[in-house]
Design brief:
By secondary structure, the protein is an alpha/beta fold. The protein contains 22 helices and 14 strands. It starts with a helix and ends in a 14-residue tail after the last helix.
């Protein structure tokens, strides 16, 4: 295999990784997608390309050349005293192995079962984990790895129960042997006794909670679910979610190099809304850009893609036709179902007005075609500090706000949320973030609007009392967290939470806020939700 075969193999791996990262972005796992995006950057590094090419021309087999070229980088990372850099050595090994498999025409993922099963392996690379089919893999266990490694991080993002770091596991388990895997406790039980199975069944029923979440002093908090596809919506409905607080429309554009037609979008949106019945669904219009490219919508590279032409900016500046198609499809579905529309990455009032003008034109088309129905509520994501500061003006133009706290925190602290070294800086419990939320909620109240939170903060048990205290109306979480968040809300007194939240706004940092919650017995360990409903 020569230099040409090596170049083709590298390009093949880059394409596969790009498709996988697009799926992660569409599923809301943008931070985790950064793990695989870093692998793409490795494959574009001239040090790899030129070094391996020289070895191949000199007669070294291509797969050996790649391994030899990358070995010093992996060794340097493993020798680092920083566990963050140590973990990245596995990414280097993953890149080498992916190129090797591409050169030899081998599959990227391990052989999958024919029915839903637990995968047992010596180890899974990050790219293999991200490529697992969740309809066939219900969890996995490995001999190697740690809870902070990229494989485990990706498993959590995908909602896959996983237990890693169990020596001798592969030899102790036979194909088809019953296993009881508990990702929360980090245990794997081989051939579980019969009395363990009913216990598991009892635990499983606890994730279903269709009752409203009402605080002890009578305030209701809607608990919805985030969804990235039809399967997520079905899981949300089964879990008892009050609605879909964030439906990521990127899933409509995945799996094809062709953009979906308006009719195709209508069909999928109808399937999602029908899965939720009478419960509302909030559709976020396409949120992509150079940082979250889609196969059917490639974007030119940007120096700072997270700050570039993405979200509503892309739709208004480059592809207003895409926005028009999306809102027409939404209007057609909203004529029969409780569908709401939400624009992402809003910074200014003018952007909202431009988007609403496209919506108004689409409404005329839809109404002329006889598909008119009740007015569709329109909201925006508040994830840019400018939108939070300008919430008073924006509230006059929209029906609701949904706080994207992941990006809001990232932009507020100028701290890339895909960079693990900056994790402590981008703390969503920092008073600066809480002050932003407080400002948005108060502006919404002045104009009779409601406010939801669809970022990771809504699932954070430390944050729930603060969000309730700040007056947030809705929390949108991952489907498995619906029952837990509802049960937590029921333990709270909204008036007490308001008092604590007001005090938190005056503190110096996130750790001080956590200490305050502990003092008031509002930390997760004190809020033991009742699961005997």
């Amino acid at each position: 295999m020569g230099a040409d075969e090596l170049a083709r193999a590298i390009e093949q791996v880059k394409v596969r990784l790009s498709v996988t990262t697009a799926r992660l972005h569409a599923g809301g796992a943008s931070a985790e997608a950064g793990i695989l995006e870093a692998q793409v950057l490795m494959l574009e590094d001239p040090a790899l390309l030129d070094g391996a090419r020289v070895l191949v021309i000199g007669g070294t087999p291509a797969d050996v050349a790649v391994a030899q070229t990358m070995a010093p980088f992996a060794a340097m990372l493993r020798a680092s005293p920083d566990p963050v850099f140590q973990a990245r050595a596995a990414d280097v090994d993953d890149v080498v192995e992916q190129v090797r498999r591409a050169l030899h025409g081998l599959s990227d993922v391990p052989p999958l079962p024919l029915q839903p099963s637990i995968v047992v392996a010596r180890d899974l690379a990050p790219s293999q984990t991200a490529g697992l089919d969740r309809t066939l893999v219900v969890g996995f266990a490995t001999e190697q790895g740690t809870a902070t490694a990229h494989t485990a991080i990706l498993a959590r993002a995908l909602g896959l129960p996983a237990v890693v770091g169990i020596p001798g596991l592969v030899d102790a388990v036979a194909d088809g042997q019953p296993l009881l895997l508990d990702g929360d406790e980090g245990t794997v039980l081989v051939d579980p006794p019969p009395d363990a199975i009913p216990h598991l069944g009892t635990r499983a029923t606890l994730v279903v909670d269709a009752e409203p979440a009402i605080t002890r002093d009578g305030r209701r908090v809607e608990v919805g679910s985030n969804a990235a596809n039809l399967e997520d919506a079905q899981r949300a409905a089964a879990a008892g979610a009050d609605g879909i607080g964030l439906l990521r429309s990127e899933f409509l554009f995945l799996g094809s190099d062709q953009l979906p037609t308006e009719d195709e979008q209508v069909a999928m949106l109808e399937a999602v809304t029908e899965a939720m019945g009478a419960r509302p669904v909030i559709l976020r219009t396409l949120d992509v850009g150079a940082d979250k490219p889609l196969p059917a919508l490639p974007q030119p590279p940007e120096a700072n893609p997270a700050l570039g032409v993405r979200g509503l900016r892309l739709q208004l500046l480059r592809r207003p036709d895409l926005l028009a198609d999306q809102v027409r499809a939404a209007l057609r579905v909203a004529a029969k179902h409780p569908l709401r529309l939400m624009f992402p990455m809003v910074s200014t009032l003018e952007e909202v007005r431009q988007a609403k003008a496209i919506l108004a034109a689409a409404a005329k088309d839809v109404n002329a075609a006889g598909a008119n129905g009740p007015r569709m509520p329109v909201g925006i994501m508040v994830e840019v500090p400018a939108a939070a500061i300008g919430a008073d003006l924006l509230a006059r133009e929209v029906d609701f706000f949904s706080l994207g706290t992941n990006d809001l925190t990232q932009y507020l602290f100028a701290a890339d949320r895909t960079n693990p070294e900056l994790g402590p800086l981008a703390d969503s419990l920092h008073p600066a973030v809480l002050q932003m939320i407080d400002q948005v909620v108060k502006a919404a109240r002045r104009h009779g609007r409601w406010v939801g939170v669809c970022g990771e903060m809504a699932s954070d048990l430390w944050a729930v009392p603060l969000l309730v205290g700040l007056g947030v109306d809705e929390l949108s979480v991952h489907p498995p967290m619906v029952a837990r968040i509802k049960a937590t809300v029921r333990q709270l007194n909204a008036a007490d939470c308001a008092e604590v939240a007001a005090a938190a706004l005056e503190l110096e940092g996130g750790q001080a806020v956590r200490h305050l919650l502990e003092q008031r017995h509002l930390e997760p360990s004190s809020l033991r939700p009742r699961t005997d409903r």
